[in-house]
Amino acid sequence: MQLNMIVAGVGGQGSVLASHIIAEAAIAHGLAVRVGETFGAAMRGGAVASHVRMGDVASPLVKKGGADAILALEPLEGLRVGVDYLSPEGIVILNTCPNYPVDTSIGVFPYPPLERIQADLRSLGKTVYAFDATELAIQAGNARTLNAVILGALAGTGLLPFSAQILEEALAARVPASSLESNRAAFRLGLQRLEELKKGA
Amino acid sequence: MNVISLNQPGRRALLMGNEAIARGALEGGLELAAAYPGTPSSEVVEALYEARRDRDFYVEWSINEKVAFEVAYGASLVGARCLCAMKNAGFNWVMDTFMTISYTGCKAGMLIVVADDPDAHYSSNEQDTRVAAEYNRLFCFEPSNQEEARQMAAASFQISEHLELPVFLRSVTRISHASGDVTLGILPEVQNRHQLGFNKHWKLPYRWNVYGPPGAVAKHDWLLSRGALMDEIAATSSFNRLTPSPSRIAVIASGLGASYADEALTNLGLLGVVQYLRLGIAYPLPNAALRQIFATTDVVVVIEEGDPMVERQVLRLAQAEDFRGKILGKDSGLLKPTGEINTDLAEEALAKATGNLTARGNLTGLPAGGLSSVTARGNLTGLPAGGLSSVTARGSNLTARGSVSLDATMSRGELRAEIKPRITPRSSTLCAGCPHLGSYWGLKKVLNRQSEDAIVNGDIGCYEQAGYGLFTKKDLASPEDSKRYPILSPYTILDTLYVMGSGIAMAQGQAQIGYPGKCLAVAGDSTFFHATMPALANAVANQADIAFLILDNSWTAMTGHQPSPTSCRNALGNPATRLSIEKVVEALGVHDLHIVAPYDVKAVEGAVDKALAFHGPSVVLARGECMLQVIRRTKRRWQTTVVTEGCTGCKTCLQLGCPAITFADEKAGIDRLLCVDCGLCSQVCPFHAILGGK
Ligand SMILES: Cc1ncc(C[n+]2csc(CCOP(=O)(O)OP(=O)(O)O)c2C)c(N)n1
């Protein structure tokens, strides 16, 4: 068994932490894991992609075209990673709330239309679950729980070889006590939204 | 008049090897030299100081080798032919800069002279720095006598400009500190100074910035692409000479080793009998000549001073060519690997290597057909006959290092190719509320207003973001020697960017050679203590007219907020002694010091203005703690900053480069998640339309 995922986002969104939480849950479930180095200047608004692999894995990086899931905390970053890594059988969890790069805000490069990003990802993979995860995080009481929303959504896909509860506990173990409740709430909102989307799909 | 500056071409004179190098460099059009003394290298610059009495060029004893190297390199970038000299140990201090500048090359010719010390006469080790030249893929001269040292130094600048890379000249004690007859060449009268200029995108985008688009790996590709030009020189230069013979034995000797081999072969009666490849270029080797040797011999003996550096290159090619004979040298145990060699040792080794064969009657065994002579068909520099312009092939693979997908079917490949152009690049930025944003705003205002030709030399830390540029589609490169580009984005302020501590010394090279614009440098607090103090001392000692901005955010932020000497806390969070940058700056002899808060952009502007007006080294110390650390401590978040109705959509605030400032529907906005209420944007808004903040 092998499960290959990439968490994509912008520095500061918590994508690296999210990838570690998935890996820790996998370890709790008794699986071997690899989390690839992250790329980009994470501290400074750069693009970040964190590879998470579990099962019969040895190397730190997902093969091109080999990602079973891409967890995109930001739409453009989802496409940036998806274009090379998404498997034709793979799924994408896509936060539709954009974070415009400085290249766009100073007018050098346009930001691709959201519908275009989704259409491109659909042509590359099997299913795209798109929703405004940032809005759900705010609903959960803290916009910084965006990564927890995405983790909840991942649990809702049924892709993981372990239960949603294992993932939620791995999350709980890694967030500060002060934001534990909002993180749990965010996780559940994400899970719930994905289940709705699956029904709709 | 000193013989070094005597313009009597053809006159023969006795010169020490180091003097011969100095003389050669002057003949080659040297304009700036910088060095730190160390035996056996010191006389290169001592001789140049003598010549300085008669000729106009810049020479300095720098504070250390790294500073000297960067001073010289800075001068090359504005168009001055330069030299930097050091001993073997001194070279180790230069390694960080040395290994990095090769990725962008140089502009005017640059000659790196390193005097090694086999047998450790004056040194604590015997290291062979030719290995570093090969490691860094730089062209490496190795003279066998003083006259060759002069010729090589003289030829270096032209070769360096042809390659757009520094040329390495490796001397040893018995060249540098020995003397020999030298025939003086022509000293050029005209100095180049009027041609000084700076183009930050010279021939390639972000040319003088290893991090600039398209990034360091593409610049590494560029460096490797220069190999073919070097091979061409190695193949045709008359500093390399192959004397073929019908013998099945070849001797390859390099540099000083060749002078011993010359004698040993003569003494043994083997000169002209065995094949003999005499090398003046230790890297790269002339592969065609080596192939010819492999095809016609059974035994190859390598004689060189130092490590088996040439021997290993020969071994490598021999393996690739499936050479079945023996390669004998230091690795094989024919010669001892430590200490110096000499004629006796070379003779002994050659006798041993050829003896057995002589006994078997192999020595003059004639291959069918004989060999055509490849001797001496090159000119001295080895540059192609058509002149420099005839050589193209520069940086052709600098762009597009897109990953090739091996697993994709063709249609998937096409799909990817269709999607990729839509993926907006995401250039990294400084953080919202970063104190460096305020410092750079003030600096940029001054530069755009009053200093058209300024060069801002960057350094390593978060603030290096200001040199990354944006990954724009525009092809900026231009071949002009001098060109000013407007500061378009907050991230295009830095003109040069290399390694820790390099910026401030490079600024000095530019200033000292007389670059007409202002020469500035920036560095952070951690970098200040790590690598810039010697360079600042150098600026004072040599009275360089530079302005140095120290961006003190109290932490080693970029690498993850380790403490710096200005943190007041150690890594356990306990109180620690705070070192005072201003006291260090003053103690180093800087008289023009301005301390400002980066969150007061007018104050920064005023301080930079004053620093640029001052003649001599001046320092602006902008002190404001890293905002991420402030937030961690105080939990401070967005509360009040708002863009009001007064916003005209002028986009001035976007030029601050703060990622919390957004722009949509012709109006600026504030990202509530990112904003930390630092107050910078409300200061820069010309319509006072942004309210709140500190
Ligand atoms: C020789 C060397 N050692 C270490 C590093 C790693 N490094 C990158 S930036 C940096 C320090 C930056 O600190 P500072 O100058 O205070 O700037 P800040 O990031 O705080 O703005 C270090 C140590 C390096 N690039 N080169």
Keywords:
heterodimer; A: about 200 residues; alpha/beta; Pyruvate-ferredoxin Oxidoreductase, domain 3; six-stranded mixed beta sheet; 8 helices; B: about 700 residues; Rossmann fold; seven-stranded mixed beta sheet; 21 helices
Task: Describe the overall structure.
The complex is a heterodimer of chains A (201) and B (694). The mean pLDDT of chain A is 92. Chain A has helices at 15-28, 75-85, 102-105, 114-124, 133-139, 146-157, 164-174, 180-200; strands at 2-10, 33-35, 47-55, 67-72, 86-95, 127-131. Chain A has one domain (2-200): Pyruvate-ferredoxin oxidoreductase, PFOR, domain III (Pyruvate-ferredoxin Oxidoreductase, domain 3, 3-Layer(aba) Sandwich). In chain A, helix 6 (146-157) crosses helix 8 (180-200) and helix 7 (164-174) runs antiparallel to helix 8 (180-200). In chain A, 45% of the residues lie in helices and 21% in strands. Chain A has 8 helices and 6 strands. A 6-stranded mixed beta sheet of chain A has the order 2-3-1-4-5-6, sandwiched between helices. By secondary structure, chain A is an alpha/beta fold. In chain A, strand 4, helix 2 (75-85) and strand 5 form a beta-alpha-beta unit. With 694 residues, chain B is an alpha/beta fold. Chain B folds into 4 domains: 3-194, Thiamin diphosphate (ThDP)-binding fold, Pyr/PP domains (Rossmann fold, 3-Layer(aba) Sandwich), CATH 3.40.50; 237-365, Rossmann fold (3-Layer(aba) Sandwich); 435-632, Thiamin diphosphate (ThDP)-binding fold, Pyr/PP domains (Rossmann fold), CATH 3.40.50.970; 636-691, 2-Layer Sandwich (Alpha-Beta Plaits), CATH 3.30.70.20. Helix content of chain B is 34%, strand content 15%. Chain B has 21 helices and 25 strands. Chain B has a 7-stranded mixed beta sheet with strand order 3-2-4-5-7-6-12, with helices on both faces. Chain B has a 5-stranded mixed beta sheet with strand order 9-11-10-13-14, with helices on both faces. Chain B has a 5-stranded parallel beta sheet with strand order 15-16-17-21-20, with helices on both faces. In chain B, strand 6 (140-141), helix 6 and strand 7 (167-172) form a beta-alpha-beta unit. Chain B is elongated, with a radius of gyration of 29 Å. In chain B, 54% of the residues are buried. Mean pLDDT of chain B is 90; it is low at 359-379 and 384-408. Chain A binds chain B through residues 10-12, 40-41, 43-47, 63-66, 76-77, 79-80, 83-84, 88, 100-112, 116, 120, 123-124, 143-144, and chain B through 403, 405-408, 412, 415-416, 419-420, 422-431, 462, 465, 470-473, 489, 491, 558, 628, 651, 654-655, 657, 659, 661-663, 672-674. The complex binds thiamine diphosphate. Thiamine diphosphate (TPP) is lined by residues 96, 460-463, 500, 523-527, 553, 555-559, 564 of chain B.
